[in-house]
Specification:
Helix content: 40-55%
Strand order of the largest sheet: 4-3-2-1-5
Radius of gyration: 32 Å
Amino acid sequence: MQADPWRRARALFWLGTTLAFVLALLLVSGVLSIPGLAVPTVSLGAYRSWVFIILILLSTKALLEILKPVFRAALKSHVRYEADIFAHFQIVSYVVWGTALGLAVYILIGGGAQEFGFLGTALVSAALIYVMQEPLLNLVGWIILVTMRLYKLGDRIEMNTAKGYVVEITPMNTTIREFSGGFFGDGFTGRYATLPNSNVLKGNVFNYTKDTPFIWDQLTIGVTYESDHKAAEKLILEAAEEIVGPMMRENRARLRAKYEFADLQDYIAEEPKVGWALADSSVNLTLVYFAPIFAKGHYRTRLTKRILEKFAADPRVSFAYPHMQMVPADATPKDKVAVTR
């Protein structure tokens, strides 16, 4: 994969940065000397807390970058989807980062709180909370989405008018590879969207794949009032039976296992169904079915093609479509009827 060299390069970069920082510390503190290189000695006693904090943060980043491919290789044979592997690794990285940040805060408070005093600490804390209120909301939103499992890596979600495939979750934001209903079959647009995690607290989150990979869809066919509507319904159901019927029956047990209440089995369609509705110039027959979210456009295309073939072979039914008819003013009543038809 092309991404693998980039991951290795990134891991080497952070490892090199950490080692360079340690080397610089050893040189300026006089612990290490390089012949021919004159480096002024600096007393780091006053900055000891910050030195430790920076070292902890750099070491944590380098460690996680090195462990990421190792973690992926270890779970590849046990976890089916790569997105789930990285979801597990993110949980591990959050624990590691939380430990590192907690240790950094402990060192910072232990190293300088005595001189700063309670009042100064309170004022600085209040100022930080005010300035950092949006990042704090993002952090709270991240905690909620992780603990409540609102979505995970690999899920298809809709949030704040953006829809996409979740590719990254951080404590501050969520990155999705965007797909859109404006594209046929909800195809990918090629864009990435970054959504602040605070949206979890402010709006609705729609998860298309939280419990099952299936989504309900519908296809509306308009037929003329002169058509045989029962025959049209039969043809539509025949097409649905050929294209999606076996797949729906094969997977309905998976859907039932996810129902919160047994009563839902009476309300949710588990086989293709057709609903009727009257329109200005047609009778609309709407086919309701479910399909895998990642193949919705594929099944819709196959259904459309099969229904077109069946309607074309049956003279009893015809599609309704908008059109205009011109009737001469001097036409006889018999001619008007013929033209209208």
